Amino acid sequence: MTVNDVLAMLEEEDFIEAEVTMSPPGDGQNSDEDSDAEDGCQPDHLNAAQLTAAAEFRINYGSQVVNSLDTDDGNSCETSDDEIDGLTENVLEVVHPPDVITEEDSSRPTVNDDSLTAAVPPATQHTWLKKDLPAKSFNSKPSLRVPKEPLSPVAIFNAFFDDETMEYMVRMTNTYARRDKGKHTFTTDVNEMRLFLAMLLLTGYVPLPRRKLYWENSDDVVNSAMSSAMSRNRFEELVANLHVCDNETLDKSDNMAKIRPFFSMMNEKCLQYFLNQEELSVDESMLPYYGRHSGKQRIIGKPVRMGYKMWVLATSDGYVVQFEPYQDAKKGGQCRSSAVSWGLGERVVLDLLEELPKESYHVFIDNFFTSVRLLEYLNDSNIQATGVIRQNKLAKCSIEGPKVLEKKDRGYYDQRTSKNGTITVVGWHDNRSVYVASNALSARPTSHVSRWCRKAGSRVNIEQPGLIKQ
Description:
Layout: H1 3-12, E1 17-22, H2 48-51, E2 55-60, E3 65-69, E4 128-129, H3 153-160, H4 163-180, H5 190-205, H6 224-229, H7 232-241, H8 260-272, E5 279-288, E6 296-298, E7 306-315, E8 320-325, H9 344-353, E9 362-365, H10 372-380, E10 384-388, H11 402-405, E11 413-418, E12 424-429, E13 433-438, E14 447-453, E15 458-464, H12 466-469
Parallel strand pairs: 5-9, 9-10
Antiparallel strand pairs: 1-2, 2-3, 4-11, 5-7, 6-7, 7-8, 10-13, 11-12, 12-13, 14-15
């Protein structure tokens, strides 16, 4: 694999530690160069030659270790335990360790009604039967809140950046300028801070190559809205002193400590105006950023490949209910109360759901987050959940494998449900095989979807399981 492939894989995996050894790129003369960092070779700042170089890697998942060494033909890959069956072409699917169950945790843990993240992950030793998931009723569906009247964009903005938020920003900015920068005569107020934020928003939808151009008199860049609102020197002074935290109370273990108080305030506002919709989604969102910061991520294949990765809980119409910046797999939301711990994806889901009112929601997630034990725990917590699931997270489910499914007719599906009737897993053959698990939805009733059939040269209708349609 190339260095680029390894970095992309590690970004999506939950592991204890990893070692990556790079081959000298190109002629071997630039092996220690970095594209823009001065403090050594950082994985977020590798140049093109380094990213395309061959790499040897070793990943420790706890109970399994995966080794790979790229050879001249790029086809040599061996594992120390089980043979890896790739789910897609030319993609290495790394085998995760099975859920580790200690003697102390062999009994089913009691769900803590007060906290989702405090409990021990449940055991996932199931007997799987070829049947549909029995109908279940989840208690207390969310009571939908309806706004009294439609609000203008300005009114919505002011609901989040209200007087409390603005006064906090003013207080922290004044404190930083006077105490930390020694500018004892500096002062700002709520009205000026609102004007400053308005000018920042304007620079977002009327971009210029340099900030100082907004005050130029040239015909091609003149902007009277900016130049008449505030002088350039005053704007630059506010930019230099803007603060949303107290530097004397920073948590040094949190690389987002500078904006953590502001994030917390915004999360409270998001929850305050949440209309309590039942169907929610957990996924990642990238905020573009190209400067230097230890929290910056580089993800190949995304529309925004460089920036901050945010874990987001959102409604089906895009409203953000809760969000949390990703730092790394070892920081934040550890959720550890015994030798058995939640994985990164599982912790993200539990952390984002933690602050919601204790009602029955339906959460849809992708294969990075989904596991059988997470669905089982959410079921006991009165939360419906459905998600695409990786084959290596199926807790020894006896469902047909991808190689078997893809030999069947298009539209064929196989289903297995746990004997206790809490979890069902459906494997479906569409363009490729896909697996979906749920604690609330079943394969039936099925529906039909239209697909292009290359063999027939026309569109055909194929059967689609109900939970996949949802």
